[in-house]
TrEMBL record:
Protein name per Swiss-Prot or TrEMBL: DUF2892 domain-containing protein
Taxonomy, superkingdom: Bacteria
Residues in Inner membrane protein YgaP-like transmembrane domain copies: 1-60
Pfam families attached to this UniProt entry: YgaP-like_TM (PF11127)
């Protein structure tokens, strides 16, 4: 699996997943809490099947930066 989730997107996914899990805990909804795991997992492994299906690669921007 090649990286297709950038660093900014990774942070956003993990935070969004935590918020969704928090909402699931607040409303006592196990399904909502389980859905919150998806963005956390895709953020942690930095690979998303939806990004791959649509041809989006957030890691491409990180590879072309020149730090000179």
């Amino acid at each position: 699996m090649e990286c297709n989730v950038g660093l900014k997107e990774q942070k956003l996914r993990v935070l969004a997943g935590m918020a969704i899990i928090g909402l699931g805990a607040y409303y006592n909804t196990k399904a909502l809490a389980a859905i919150g795991l998806i963005p956390i997992l895709t953020g942690m492994i930095r690979w998303c099947p939806i990004n791959q299906a649509i041809g989006y690669n957030g890691c491409a921007d990180e590879l072309v930066k020149d730090y000179t």
